[in-house]
Amino acid sequence: MNVKEFMLNDIVEMKKQHPCGTNAWKIIRMGADIRIKCEGCGHSVMIPRNQFAKKMKKVLLRTDS
Fold first, then answer.
1. Cβ within 8 Å of residue 60, ≥6 positions away
2. Considering the entire predicted model, what is its pTM?
3. Which Pfam families match (predicted)?
């Protein structure tokens, strides 16, 4: 099984596109739930970590922190 690695402030690509037209999201909170913010319109969503791992496609931009 492929383990996806992601960190706080990474920009990730999700499998489904957001209605505003982009599928790039910034991880702004991590814990049992993960909060992500749309890079296009600024809308934020909180989803459980296991759902996030399934819906995330890849990391577009890593942070150095």
1. 11, 12, 13, 24
2. 0.87
3. DUF951 (PF06107)
Measure the CA–CA gap between 28 and 11, rounded to whole angstroms.
Answer: 10
Q: Is 56 left (phi over 0), alpha (psi -120 to 50) or beta?
A: beta
Specify the DSSP element, H or E, that contains 24.
strand 24-29
Nearest-angstrom CA–CA distance, 10 and 25: 8
| Helix locations, 1-65, DSSP H | 49-55
Encode 15-37: b = buried (16+ Cβ within 10 Å), e = exposed.
eeebeeeebbbbbeebeeebbbb
